[in-house]
Structures are given as structure tokens and as C-alpha cells.
């Protein structure tokens, strides 16, 4: 079955969806994106993604081409026509194609390019990695300084994933000024006793939708939350470590730069948080 994708108002077979070579997304990485998970055919934390999308667009002085209700309708249509039970919807808005390549933004009346597509991931919530945990290495964070904007310029995170792959592990954590910023495509946490420690929000990290939800659930479950930076040394000596993202949910980290974290297997705090997160988010899914 060929996949149906969305391009600028039309639902098309993927092979027919074409974008101009002058699109600023292609030439300049001038665009933003969101990834929303789908479980049992429903969208997880959709409202959170809409709020962040609006903020990313506004920080780049781009108009939001759709209302939240319109975005929801497009997402739902793609999930339905592609019969997605478990998987994700990828959304991207770029500044479009005014014609000639120019560093300056084109005038406001240029129509943005809007692309959405689905990816099926059967059994997404039962990812076996959640049972055994993942391993990470640390690498320097040399990304730009506006990591709070969810742009499509993902080359360095891709290099970070490749560095992990070459090292025989699952992912990389970025380190800047001696402390962890975040993972290549996720937020990073450690656990000490009943306390969850994760870096405070700023333009140094992406403001994870999953992060916000998990911290809220942690407080509701009487866990302590401390928002501050931590070093790799501190993480290696922690009781537990984990990451969060819209597609990995809550995922234990059991090894950092070759050193086992805690017992070297997923701990009970991360297991509990994952369970609460999935339960609550399934209930609130649209
Ligand atoms: N940080 C980075 C750099 C990311 O790419 C992501 C994934 N979008 C996250 C954190 C986690 O954000 P979210 O929970 O909203 O998926």
C-alpha cells in the first residue's frame, strides 16, 4: 500500500509529493518540525506539540499556516488514511520558495511549505529497549545557541547518532562547559534516591513536550524534581539515568561512556515513570 502524505493542502501518494529545489528548507534548513506519536490510532500530547510549533514559528518570524483545529484535522486524516495504529506523524513547515537564493528572509506574503507524513511503528510502546535500557557516549555540544527552536537543521545530532553507532552504543549525550545539555534527540535525566535531576530550561536545550509531562507526573507521584545541570561524572555515579522524547517516551540509560549506571540495568524509578507516562498519555490521547 502506498503511503498518503500531506503537501500544501493536498493529500497525495508519497511519490507525487514534490517540493521546489528553491525551498528555503532545502537550501538553508529554514524550517521547523514536530513529531507526534500515535498509540492505538490516537495522537499523544497533541496540544503540547501545537504550542511548541507556534513558538518555534514565531521565534523565526514565520506565520503559523494553520489553527490548532486545522492541524488536528490534518493529523487525524493522515492517521486514518494510512491506517496507523502505532507510529508517528511528522510535521514540517519551511519558509517556502520565493525564487532566487537569498540570505535575507523573503517578504511576508511568501507561502510556507507544509509537509506531513506518517510512519508506522507497530508495538511502539512495547519497545524491548525499555526493558534492558540503552547505552550512551558523551560528545561535545557544538550546536548553535537556539536549541529551544525545533529547526530542521539536524546535521550535528545526526553526527552524534553516527558517533554512537561507531562506538557500538545507542546514542550520544551532548556536553558543554563540563555539563550535559541533552541527548541527540531527547532530554537527559539522572535519579538520586527519590530525586529526579534534569537540566533547567533555557535556549541551551529543546523544551521537550515529554519532559514537561514527565516532570508533572513525577511531582504528582511525590517524587522530588530538581532542574539543574549535571556532569557525566555525576551521571555515572547516579542511581539511575534516562531520556525522554515524544517517540521514545521514557527510556532507561544503563551505561554512560562505558561505565554502568547503578546496577547496569533499568531501575524502578524510570520503570514507574514510563508506566505512569504511558497510562496518562493514552488516557488524554486525541
Ligand atoms: N531534545 C532534542 C534535541 C530533541 O530533538 C528532542 C526530540 N524532539 C527532545 C529533546 C525531546 O523533545 P520531545 O519530548 O518534545 O520529543
From TrEMBL:
A GO molecular function held by the record: branched-chain-amino-acid transaminase activity
Keyword Transferase: yes
Keyword tags: Amino-acid biosynthesis, Aminotransferase, Branched-chain amino acid biosynthesis, Pyridoxal phosphate, Transferase
Catalytic activity, EC: 2.6.1.42
Gene Ontology biological process terms in this record: amino acid biosynthetic process; branched-chain amino acid biosynthetic process
A Gene Ontology term for the protein's cellular component: cytosol
Source superkingdom: Bacteria
Record-linked InterPro entries: Aminotrans_IV, Aminotrans_IV_CS, Aminotransferase-like, BCAT-like_C, BCAT-like_N, Class-IV_PLP-Dep_Aminotrnsfr
Required co-factors: pyridoxal 5'-phosphate
Pathway connected to this protein: Amino-acid biosynthesis; L-leucine biosynthesis; L-leucine from 3-methyl-2-oxobutanoate: step 4/4; Amino-acid biosynthesis; L-valine biosynthesis; L-valine from pyruvate: step 4/4; Amino-acid biosynthesis; L-isoleucine biosynthesis; L-isoleucine from 2-oxobutanoate: step 4/4
PANTHER family linked to this entry: AMINO-ACID AMINOTRANSFERASE, AMINODEOXYCHORISMATE LYASE
NCBIfam families, per database record: PRK06680.1 (NF005209)
Protein name: Probable branched-chain-amino-acid aminotransferase
Organism this protein belongs to: Cypionkella aquatica
Amino acid at each position: 500500500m502506498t503511503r498518503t502524505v500531506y503537501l500544501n493542502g493536498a493529500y497525495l501518494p508519497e511519490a507525487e509529493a514534490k517540493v521546489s529545489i528553491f525551498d528555503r528548507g532545502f537550501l538553508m534548513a529554514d524550517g521547523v518540525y514536530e513529531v507526534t506519536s500515535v498509540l492505538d490510532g490516537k495522537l499523544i500530547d497533541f496540544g503540547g506539540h501545537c504550542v511548541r510549533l507556534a513558538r518555534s514559528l514565531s521565534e523565526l518570524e514565520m506565520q503559523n499556516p494553520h489553527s490548532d483545529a486545522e492541524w488536528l484535522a490534518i493529523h487525524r486524516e493522515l492517521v486514518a488514511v494510512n491506517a496507523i495504529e502505532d507510529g508517528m506523524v511528522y510535521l514540517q513547515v519551511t519558509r517556502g520558495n520565493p525564487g532566487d537564493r537569498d540570505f535575507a528572509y523573503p517578504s511576508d506574503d511568501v507561502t510556507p511549505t507544509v509537509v506531513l507524513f506518517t510512519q508506522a511503528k507497530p508495538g511502539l510502546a512495547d519497545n524491548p529497549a525499555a526493558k534492558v535500557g540503552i547505552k550512551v557516549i558523551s560528545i561535545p555540544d557544538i550546536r548553535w545557541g537556539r536549541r529551544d527552536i525545533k529547526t530542521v537543521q539536524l546535521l550535528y545530532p545526526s553526527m552524534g547518532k553516527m558517533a554512537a553507532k561507531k562506538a557500538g552504543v545507542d546514542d550520544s549525550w551532548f556536553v558543554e562547559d563540563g555539563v550535559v545539555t541533552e541527548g541527540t534527540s531527547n532530554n537527559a535525566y539522572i535519579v538520586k534516591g527519590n530525586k529526579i535531576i534534569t537540566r533547567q530550561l533555557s535556549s541551551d536545550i529543546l523544551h521537550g513536550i515529554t519532559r514537561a509531562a514527565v516532570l508533572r507526573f513525577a511531582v504528582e507521584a511525590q517524587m522530588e524534581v530538581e532542574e539543574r545541570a549535571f556532569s557525566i561524572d555525576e551521571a555515572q555515579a547516579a542511581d539511575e539515568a534516562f531520556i525522554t522524547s515524544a517517540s521514545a517516551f521514557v527510556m532507561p540509560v544503563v551505561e554512560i561512556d562505558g561505565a554502568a549506571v547503578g546496577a547496569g540495568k533499568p531501575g524502578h524509578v524510570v520503570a514507574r515513570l514510563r508506566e505512569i507516562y504511558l497510562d496518562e498519555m493514552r488516557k488524554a490521547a486525541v
